[in-house]
Structure formats: structure tokens, C-alpha cells
Amino acid sequence: MAESGGQEQSRWITTVIMSTALQNHEISTILQRQQHRVRYSESVEIGSVIFSLSGVAFILADTQDLLMTGEEQFFKRIQKFINIHRNSFLVLSAALHGPEEWNVMFRIQRRFLGSNLRIIPVHNTAETVKLMLTIAKITSKPQADDIRYKMAMIKAQIIENSPVWKMRQDYQLHCN
After folding, report:
1. Beta partners for 15?
2. What values do phi and psi take at 87, rounded to 5?
3. For 19, which of 4, 12, 153, 154 is 20 to 30 Å away at the CA?
4. What are the backbone angles phi and psi of residue 120, rounded to the nearest 5°?
5. How far is CA 58 from CA 47, 98, 111, 158, in A?
6. Three-state SS letters, 103-134
7. Are the C-beta atoms of residues 90 and 62 closer than 8 Å to each other?
8. Proportion of the chain in helix, strand, coil states, percent, rounded to 5
9. Strands (E), the chain
């Protein structure tokens, strides 16, 4: 357990399925160092990172590689990926997101508009791991239930402390 800002937090650990192509990748090393259970599979799309307990899947792509290999081949991989994973994210990495990189992202968005694909631009490996773990954690069952409960409590508190709600209560008191 670690202390963080006066609040006690338990360490969240999960199982991650990765394509074998990422076996020697820095992302794999970081996840293992953080004690996550990393499993490799040849049957998943190249560049995939899947958090099965959270129901989210990420496909990693480098913008420069995409510019060099061509879009059609890449679009076929993405289409296959989103056909398999209903909660899918494309993590597009570039050291700098300049006009060329934003143009690539726009073309991908336009091509997959209306699909279940969400595109996230990142700059480095640490940022990639942090965002994947954040999304996986908040979509995991216990966390999602906890967030829903907290949101309901906050909503109730806002309504209870609302001036409109107080006026309504006062009005009902005067009418009775």
C-alpha cells in the first residue's frame, strides 16, 4: 500500500496479453516491472496490448512507420482489430505531433468515423503505458462500479445542496 496525498491506495495489478512482436519492447518491460502479469500471444494482431479483465484493447502504431509502409495495409490491420475488439484504442506515437502527423491522424479518423475505434496521440513509452493502465483500470469491473457509485453520490449531493432544490422544499413547506 502506498500513501498518496493522505489517501491510502492499493496497487492495481492485472493480466496483459501482448503480441509476441512486443516481447522485447520497452512497454513489456515497464509492465513487468510494475508486477503486471504479461502474457504473449501470436494469435493477436501485431502491436496489440489487451487488458482482457477490463475489456479494452490497444493497438500501437508509430506515425513514421505508418508514413513509410502505406495507409491501406495499416487500415486493413486496424479494421481487423476493431472487428475483434469492441472497446478499441489506436495509440499513435510520434516524438512531435506536427502537421504531417496530425494529417495522418485526421485521415485515420475520417476512415474509421462511426466505428468503435478511439485514437490517442502519445509522445513516448512512459506516456503510452500510463494511459493504457489508466483506461484499463477505470474500465475494470470493481473500479467502474466504484466510479458509478461515487458519481451517484456526488449527483445526489449536488441536487441536495442546489438552491433550486431548497426553493422547492421551502415552497412545499409553505403550501402544507
Report:
1. 37
2. -120, 80
3. 12
4. -125, 120
5. 8, 23, 18, 36
6. HHHHHHHHHCCCCCEEEEEECCHHHHHHHHHH
7. no
8. 55, 20, 25
9. 2-4, 7-9, 15-19, 37-41, 48-51, 56-62, 88-93, 117-122
Provide the residue-wise pLDDT of the chain in tens; the chain has 176 residues: 333 344 445 577 888 999 999 999 999 999 999 989 999 999 999 999 999 888 899 999 988 878 787 788 889 989 999 999 989 999 999 888 788 888 888 999 999 998 989 999 999 999 999 999 999 988 877 776 777 788 888 888 887 787 877 777 777 777 76
8 A C-beta contact, residue 109 and residue 90:
no
pTM (two decimals): 0.75
Nearest to 92, CA basis, from 112, 51, 83, 84: 112
What burial class does residue 46 get, using C-beta atoms within 10 Å of its C-beta: 0-12 exposed, 13-18 middle, 19+ buried? middle
Judge contact between 133 and 103, C-beta under 8 A: no
Closest CA to 65 of 88, 92, 38, 84: 92
Residue given cell 451517484 in the structure block? 152
